[in-house]
User: Fold this.
Amino acid sequence: MRLFIFGLGFSAQAFIRQHRAQFSAIAGTVRSAGKATALTPLGVEALSFTGTEAAEPAISAWLAKADGVLVSVPPGADGCPALRAFAPEITTSRTIRWIGYLSTVGVYGDHGGAWVDETSALLTHNTRSLLRIEAERSWATQAATAGHALDILRLPGIYGPGRNALVDVAEGRARRIARPGQVFNRIHVDDIAATLATLTARAAGGPAEPRIGIYNVSDDEPAPQGDVITYAASLLGIAPPPETTLEEAGLSPMGLSFWTENKRIANARLKAELGIQLAYPNYRIGLDALFAAGEGRPTA
Assistant:
């Protein structure tokens, strides 16, 4: 299977590192030459695409032979940059059999701490999440028009090597915010990679199947942010940062926006339809593994 990835970021790179052997060729987009060089050891052909220019011939040529397309770039005010620039090539492709779109659980908005699944109302008022809803709908329209299989993965906060509460605590960036009743779900990047591997293997193993699937790719245990920070500090053997209020935390407007919505993410469809068994079903198991790998501790 030949895979093209719009946005070779944290999740996409984890997927490639762990499942490169599943593909005969992989290419994708980066925003700078430095990032392209860093991806060479992964066996990926990196092509420049900032998301603002018109279709690039090299990307168009790759899409003409790709079997799968993974979209991991955020939408802008004028929609998904990948679809905006390459809709004709993607829609008319005779080789593309699967498209994956990485979205966010932010589309559900605030449900007052209640459980939400893939059928729940999309209540967000957050501008970034509203753009995600529109991008999901645009990709669904494209898939229906072209007869492609589309899987939308709605993701909560992503953590993994180099990007986790252990590192934040060790480097003094962690804030332990007290907000009674507020919970968040998370997902380890390896569980995202495993889900993508399952979806691409399914696409490669059978006839082209026009369909649209939506999956909450989330852990099992919504938990307060402060509990995660406290647990990370306990693993490192240091005192957690003092509790602070949301108003005192000094968060950016983007950071503050995450605290305006409260929900618990259900992932039953992920398990039932795809047979996914999460390697890291809660933050404790995930942080334990990262700590065992040396995360948050000084290197010799």
In short: The chain has a mean pLDDT of 94. The chain is about 35% helix and 20% strand. The longest strand covers residues 98-104. The radius of gyration is 19 Å.
